[in-house]
């Protein structure tokens, strides 16, 4: 290669078009004893590659050699260009003063077009350091020169950088305009890495504007592009962590940040990126409730940012450190002062996080009883409630609610909470996936709790009921968004089923399953990723809960018992006979512990020979009643009862409680959900569907007998019980009975499944139904187990069915004896055939069973959900 040849001049832009090829050509060029000018280019290419994708120490070595070669070649522009690249590397290594000095020398050496490129890279460094105004000034000076030189690549880079700086300052519209202009330029180039970066940047813009599904989709697309190029994605990791946290997936964000830190340390990568990843990990740990991990990560991030002279970033890390210390119970006057100082600095930077810091200072001051200081800080934070992205406005309304609470204004608290939850409602409905909708409610938990406390003081039981319903089981109010034609998702589901089926067969035969399980997890990640990309297509819930309508539907016979939790204690709201009454019961934590004891007892009673455990389980049931119903138990009368428990009590076998044992009993995630189920009409054709999956101990013995009882029934068993056929028949059915092994996935509740002939049918499958069966009976273990997420949401098989048209479900919350299930199910269907509801039929079926411990425990493990 000769100096100035096309091959040499193409190497620099090639680093971000085809990084691997650029690295190989640069090394080959150095092996060919090049001229000093060509050697300078080759060393610079290797330095850039190592700086961005490899070992920073090697990067500095090659860039210094590149500069020496440029000096020997006596090329001022070449030396200026290398100095700018070296300056970026030094700043990423944490040697900020040396890096900025390199830029000064580069700007002085280069002229015209070269100097504009130097200014662009210095602007990038200013952005890394958090000096946003300086970054905008350098870009302002660089862009006209780059445009005049018709330098498409560097103009696009400069516009992308300017957009990113605008985002850091909260100017989303300006950022989107620059991203759009840059993308039009990228489309005319072959810069594949730069194009991936542009997609990643658009994902960040979507997130800043409040569109989480689009942000996740674009970040996943960018990751795929980077993977094709074989380049690491540390900046992408940081941005994805931000989005995951906003989506309520903080544990996943923490795992991603920690994994990226490990990878970065392994290659000797940029210390600036490590500091940013530590900050992301600290935020994620705090949101995940792990205050001590958050303190450790944030403290290290503060030290790194301080050493790198990155005040903007250091201040953000200090905010997270103070939040984590407050969460760990370390409130003090010093902490108030620290939070206030951070708020002031963030405000001076124009950082969107400034209101969060003011809110934090106000919270800590309130905890200390410093009402005047609290009011000052909260008033500043409350200004953000009027404008900006949804979560920023939510911060403002939280501050306003705390101000009203401190002032003793219950009306002010309720108004602020209403407005804040309305903002979050609108945001939640942009999310298509039920998992994201559920997890997003966590961000409104504080407002809901504040409103409940205020309503208890000022409005009595009715108002407390309204606010208990306001943020309970909101996911069930509307069906999840379903992609009508997503061939990649459908093929992924098919592949997942096949792999899961093969893994199950291998386990049963004692063959190795590690590779199959690894592939199953990969497919699960792909399926989940595609569902998280879906945007919501429903408007906010206009069907607000109406106490009068509920009482009218309940009439004089049915009582609805809603359990609210305030300050850790259960409040019993007894609804019916035209009024709402409140009773105070026990501590939620004690009830949760007792419920676990009951579950353990039921597991033992599912096996013959455990009769001695029956009195222990019954005694635990009596204690549960005292803790959960308290004095309300004496006011239940003798009619039907609907229990509406909080999410953390979803595994309680309610039929075990003495005052509920002999009555018609159903369970509902919310009073609003029960109302919708009560008002759902059955399909006109009355078609039943009976499904029998493989591998049952009894062979699903009740299904053949039920087939004889229901002459018009569609029966799917053996090879016909395949997922596509089962879903087709379930859609719109009047009654479905599924006898199949159930598996609950606590780690990923939407992959909880029922085993069919061709593999598992999972919650994601049920969410694709246009209309799920009006009534559905799930006759095997763990089908009623649910994951409690968000503020008070539940994810699992039962809750997937309720928004899709199912008015009633019978399912099981514990392991049961398969043989004892068969007579219970036959008795249940006998009651349905006589025109009873699911709850009535289940009550009679329990009474018809033998009185031994095995059959009693089986009856207690099943619950009727809904109102059909």
From TrEMBL:
<protein>
    <submittedName>
        <fullName>Tetratricopeptide (TPR) repeat protein</fullName>
    </submittedName>
</protein>
<dbReference type="InterPro" id="IPR011990">
    <property type="entry name" value="TPR-like_helical_dom_sf"/>
</dbReference>
<feature type="domain" description="CHAT">
    <location>
        <begin position="619"/>
        <end position="852"/>
    </location>
</feature>
<dbReference type="InterPro" id="IPR024983">
    <property type="entry name" value="CHAT_dom"/>
</dbReference>
<dbReference type="InterPro" id="IPR019734">
    <property type="entry name" value="TPR_rpt"/>
</dbReference>
<dbReference type="Pfam" id="PF12770">
    <property type="entry name" value="CHAT"/>
</dbReference>
């Amino acid at each position: 290669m000769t100096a100035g040849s096309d091959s040499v001049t193409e190497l620099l832009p090639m680093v971000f078009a085809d990084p691997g090829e650029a690295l190989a050509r640069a090394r080959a060029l150095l092996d060919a004893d090049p001229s000093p000018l060509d050697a300078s280019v080759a060393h610079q290419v290797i330095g850039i590659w190592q700086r961005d994708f490899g070992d920073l120490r090697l990067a500095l070595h090659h860039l210094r050699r590149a500069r020496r070669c440029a000096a020997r070649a006596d090329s001022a522009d070449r030396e200026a260009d290398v100095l700018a690249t070296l300056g970026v590397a030094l700043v990423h290594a944490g040697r900020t003063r040396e890096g900025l000095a390199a830029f000064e020398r580069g700007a002085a050496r280069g002229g015209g077009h070269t100097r504009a490129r130097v200014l662009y890279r210095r602007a990038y460094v200013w952005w890394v350091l958090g000096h946003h105004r300086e970054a905008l000034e350098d870009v302002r000076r660089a862009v006209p020169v780059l445009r005049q030189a018709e330098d498409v690549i560097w103009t696009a880079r400069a516009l992308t950088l300017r957009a990113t700086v605008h985002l850091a300052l909260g100017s989303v519209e300006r950022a989107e305009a620059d991203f759009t202009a840059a993308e039009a330029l990228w489309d005319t180039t072959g810069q594949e890495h730069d194009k991936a970066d542009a997609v990643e940047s658009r994902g960040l813009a979507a997130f800043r504007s409040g569109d989480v599904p689009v942000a996740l989709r674009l970040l996943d697309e960018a990751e795929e592009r980077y993977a094709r190029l074989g380049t690491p994605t540390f900046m992408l990791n940081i941005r994805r962590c931000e989005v995951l946290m906003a989506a309520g997936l903080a544990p996943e964000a923490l795992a991603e940040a920690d994994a990226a830190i490990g990878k970065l340390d392994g290659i000797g990568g940029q210390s600036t990126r490590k500091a940013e990843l530590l900050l992301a990990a600290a935020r994620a740990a705090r949101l995940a409730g792990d205050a001590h991990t958050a303190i450790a990560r944030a403290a290290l991030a503060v030290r790194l940012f301080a050493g790198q002279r990155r005040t903007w970033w250091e201040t953000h890390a200090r905010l997270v450190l103070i939040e984590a210390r407050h969460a760990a119970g370390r409130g003090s006057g010093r902490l108030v002062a620290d939070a206030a100082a951070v708020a002031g600095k963030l405000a001076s930077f124009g950082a969107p996080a400034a209101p969060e810091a003011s809110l934090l200072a106000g919270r800590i001051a309130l905890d200390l009883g410093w009402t005047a200081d609290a009011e000052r800080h909260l008033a500043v934070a409350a200004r953000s409630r009027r404008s900006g992205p949804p979560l920023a406005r939510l911060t403002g309304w939280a501050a306003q609610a705390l101000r009203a609470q401190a002032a003793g204004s219950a009306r002010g608290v309720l108004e602020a909470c209403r407005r804040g939850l309305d903002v979050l409602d609108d945001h939640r409905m942009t999310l298509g996936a039920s998992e994201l909708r559920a997890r997003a409610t966590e961000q409104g938990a504080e407002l809901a709790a504040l409103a409940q406390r205020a309503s208890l003081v000022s409005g009595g039981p009715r108002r407390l009921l309204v606010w208990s319903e306001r943020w309970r089981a909101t996911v069930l109010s509307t069906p999840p968004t379903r992609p009508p034609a997503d061939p990649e998702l459908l093929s992924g589901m098919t592949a997942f089923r096949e792999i899961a089926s093969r893994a199950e067969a291998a386990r049963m035969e004692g063959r190795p399953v590690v590779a199959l399980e690894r592939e199953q997890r990969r497919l699960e990640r792909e399926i989940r990723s595609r569902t998280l990309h879906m945007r919501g297509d429903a408007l906010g819930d206009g069907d607000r809960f109406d106490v009068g309508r509920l009482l009218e539907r309940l009439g004089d016979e049915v009582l609805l018992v809603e359990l609210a939790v305030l300050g850790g204690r259960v409040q019993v709201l007894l609804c019916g006979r035209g009024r709402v009454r409140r009773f105070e019961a026990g501590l939620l934590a004690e009830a949760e512990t007792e419920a676990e004891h009951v579950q353990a007892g039921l597991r033992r009673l599912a096996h013959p020979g455990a009769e001695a455990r029956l009195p222990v389980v019954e005694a635990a049931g009596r204690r549960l009643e005292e803790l959960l119903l308290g004095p309300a138990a004496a006011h239940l009368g003798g009619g039907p009862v609907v229990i509406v428990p909080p999410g953390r009590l979803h595994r309680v076998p309610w039929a075990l409680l003495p005052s509920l044992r002999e009555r018609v009993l159903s369970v509902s995630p919310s009073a609003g959900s029960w109302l919708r189920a009560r008002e759902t009409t059955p399909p006109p054709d009355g078609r039943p569907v009976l499904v029998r999956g493989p591998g049952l101990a009894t062979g699903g013995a009740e299904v053949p007998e039920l087939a004889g009882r229901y002459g018009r029934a569609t029966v799917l068993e053996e090879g016909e019980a395949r997922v596509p056929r089962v879903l087709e028949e379930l859609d719109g059915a009047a009654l479905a009975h599924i006898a199949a092994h159930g598996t609950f996935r606590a780690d990923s509740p939407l992959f909880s499944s029922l085993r069919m002939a061709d593999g598992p049918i999972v919650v994601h499958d049920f969410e694709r139904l246009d209309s799920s069966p009006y009534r559905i009976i799930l006759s095997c273990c763990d089908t009623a187990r649910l994951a409690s997420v968000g503020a008070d949401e539940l994810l699992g098989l039962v809750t997937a069915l309720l928004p899709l048209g199912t008015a009633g479900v019978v399912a099981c919350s514990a392991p049961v004896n398969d043989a004892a299930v068969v007579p219970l199910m036959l008795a249940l269907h006998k009651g349905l055939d006589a025109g009873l509801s699911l709850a009535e039929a289940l009550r009679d079926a329990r009474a018809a069973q033998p009185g031994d411990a095995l059959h009693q425990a089986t009856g207690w493990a099943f619950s009727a959900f809904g109102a059909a």
